[in-house]
Sequence to fold (224 residues):
Amino acid sequence: QQQVKQSPQSLIVQKGGIPIINCAYENTAFDYFPWYQQFPGKGPALLIAIRPDVSEKKEGRFTISFNKSAKQFSLHIMDSQPGDSATYFCAAKYDYKLSFGAGTTVTVRA
Amino acid sequence: DAGVIQSPRHEVTEMGQEVTLRCKPISGHNSLFWYRQTMMRGLELLIYFNNNVPIDDSGMPEDRFSAKMPNASFSTLKIQPSEPRDSAVYFCASSLQKGSEKLFFGSGTQLSVL
Fold:
C-alpha cells in the first residue's frame, strides 16, 4: 500500500513552462515532506523540502505548495529548462522512514 | 566528499547464483539504508541500520535477502539464491544520524537476474 500518491506519471512541457506535480498522503504523523530529483543512472538527490507548518517554500525556480488540511502538496518548476528533465519523487517522513511516491518523469522540450 | 559509493554499478547473473552488493556510506554518517527501485513498486525501503545495528528489516522481501554492516564504513546486501524477479536497481543511502532529514543516495547497482 503506497502511503504517498503521486501524479501524473509523466508530463511534457515546453521550455519556460511550469510543470506541476501533485502528491497526497493520509498519515498525519508525517512531519517532513521532501522532493527528490533523479537523473538516469543516478540516485535520487534532495531538491527541496517543507514542513507541515509552512504553506509554501521557494528555492530558486522550485516551489513547494503545501495544504495541510487537504493533506496534499505539490512541486512547481518555474521557467523550466531542458536540464530539469528528470524523474521527480515526492516523499513523506516519519521518524527515520521515508515513504516515496511513484515518481513523475518530466520532459522539458527546448 | 566522495558521496555514497556502491559497487558494482551493474551485475548480471544467472538464476540461483549468489549476489553481493556493496556500499560505503559517507564518512561520519551513522544511518544507512538499502532501497530497491522497480517500475512496479517504485522505491522501497529494504533495511535500515543505525550505528551499524539493523533497526528495521521489515522491508526485506524474503529470507533469500540478508544485509550486514560489519563497521561504520561498509555494508553488504546479499541475495541467495537470486531469482529473475529480484532484477531491479538497488540503492544504498546514508544520513548523518537517526531522524536526519537529508538522505544521500549512491548511484545504485543495476541487477539483472537471467
Notes: The mean pLDDT of chain B is 95. Chain B touches chain A at residues 4, 31, 42-43, 45, 48, 50, 55-56, 91, 93, 98-99, 101-103, 105-108 (CB under 8 Å).
